[in-house]
Design brief:
8 helices; alpha/beta; 25% strand; 7 strands
Length: 256
């Protein structure tokens, strides 16, 4: 995502990091846009607290260090920000956690100023396909991942212009299945789908899944696929009023 900003011409005054977690994107954004005000928003207050960098006593007294950075605990679908208050909305790997990303995209559009940029990444349908195939028991074992074309349609439906979507496939490899599970748990990647198994998974089901996953071992490693989807779009001046009437703009004649 950071590399994609090399091809975008924007000088944001305020950047909203939507789903910022511990603030991992802050150093890169601050380095690229040193004059921008950074607002990090996440639904988990513990993540926001864990990501704070303590300031030395003299910095606190003088008001130095991290002064342009704000962190808010809030719902991505109900942003506590005014209309047109952000120049850029940045969201790294948030949308696949949401039951429906459409309200969050609509809120991103609302808080962006005209000419503002939304840039995001999320996971696509092929993510963890090996894990789903290994279980194959009719229950959900991963989150529901949305196709990038559907996300593009959502952007247009929210009023964004010129959406650009692309993706890449990243395959991580592991020595054993327990290492994969440990890494997923460390990332908070447990399945919250209603279709998941609500009771305990029995020994036989685990043994069957492990054996099925082992058949996918290549060159001594177990693969785990992640389809990373990238998207960006711009907020343009509205073409309709909220009640559906068309907006017609007349340019003033140029002075001679």
């Amino acid at each position: 995502m950071q590399e994609r900003l090399d091809y975008v011409k924007i000088d944001p005054k305020t950047i909203l990091d939507l789903g910022c977690s511990r603030g991992g994107s802050f150093p890169g954004l601050a380095g690229r846009y040193p004059d921008a005000r950074l607002i990090g928003l996440d639904a988990a207050p513990a993540m926001l607290t864990a990501g704070r960098t303590p300031r030395a006593g003299w910095q606190r007294l003088l008001g130095l260090g991290k002064s342009a950075e704000m962190r808010l605990a809030a719902d991505a679908a109900k942003l506590p920000l005014k209309n047109a208050s952000a120049s850029m909305v940045w969201s790294n790997l948030l949308l696949h956690w949401l039951d429906d990303p459409l309200p969050a995209l609509g809120e991103a559009h609302r808080v962006l100023e005209v000419g503002g940029l939304l840039m995001f990444s999320t996971l696509g349908p092929d993510s963890l396909k090996e894990l789903r195939a290994a279980f194959g028991d009719g229950y959900a074992h991963t989150q529901r991942f949305i196709d990038m074309h559907d996300l593009g349609d959502m952007l247009v439906g929210c009023g964004f212009a010129d959406p650009v979507m692309d993706m890449e496939v990243v395959t991580l490899t592991y020595d054993d299945l327990d290492t994969l599970f440990a890494e997923l748990r460390a990332a908070g990647s447990s399945c919250a789908m209603k279709a998941r198994r609500h009771g305990l998974t029995g020994r036989q089901a685990w043994a069957t899944a492990r054996a099925a996953y082992e058949t996918m071992r290549r060159e001594g490693k177990l693969p785990a696929t992640f389809e990373v989807v990238y998207g960006h779009a711009w907020k343009v001046a509205p073409k309709q009023t909220p009640d559906g009437r068309a907006i017609v703009r007349f340019d003033l004649p140029r002075s001679k």
